[in-house]
Request: fold
Amino acid sequence: MDPHLLRTYVTVARLASFSEAACELGYTQSAVSQHIAALETDLGLPLLTRRPVAPTPAGQRLLEHAGALLLRLDAARADLGRFAAAPRTTLSVAASPLALHPRTLAALPATGVTLHGLPRERVPEAVATGEADAGLVDGIAAPSDPLRLPDVAPLSATGVAEEPLAVVLPAGHPLAGRTGLRLDDLVDARWLDAPAAGVPLGQLRAVHAGPAGRGFRTALRYEGTDTRTLAALAAAGHGLALLPLPVAAGVPGTAAVPLVAPRLVHRTELLLPGHGGDETGEPAGPAAEFARRLKS
Reply:
């Protein structure tokens, strides 16, 4: 399967237009049509209806594979490109919002840094494809356990911080005076679903021992990345949130009650390309200093 044809197909399917795909890709509309026809001939299946432009059932199934295939190809190209690249003098870091805390921020070089705030799932992709030299990603895990990251490419992952977790409630909530809370006692509570600013509800459902997909119902979904806004929503009674204890503590109008069961921590990991850097396996340039400061 020709990756150029596959990339054209994904673009046409996303934009639902041959002409718009041609503009985005820099091809003529005739060339785009030829790409789609060649891919359909190769697979022996129709992939798109023409009026309207939409994936057929076979085309929809191909889309389920296409993202991972193209990402792997981009990651391979970026990985090999590092062998010929000139030594870096600047540092580009991709980070999920909760991975930026005093320890990781203090490790950044004083100059020459570009920091990209990205959703958690995008951080490994950015490092794999060369969009960033290093990544900081966070999530919940058992103490000392690694995060479960998507297998997008060979990446080196090193734990650099673990913090306790706390449930954020309005100050007047009946549970606000507790010294600790169990996840089992909160399954039927109303929650804030804030996948970028807090711990995603999907992760709570995944670690909870109850029936899959049940509990932790969403009262309000917040699509932003500002943890202060998330805490303010909790203070106003719109739902509970789970945050690292240092972030949750001291927010006006809220109570931060430590999560005591199951034993979980908020973990931050440093991601580097391949096995951690250049052909010797060691990070090079500003990434090397950043990694050393984080690991020390």
Summary: Confidence is low (pLDDT under 50) at residues 277-281. DSSP finds ten helices and twelve strands in the chain.
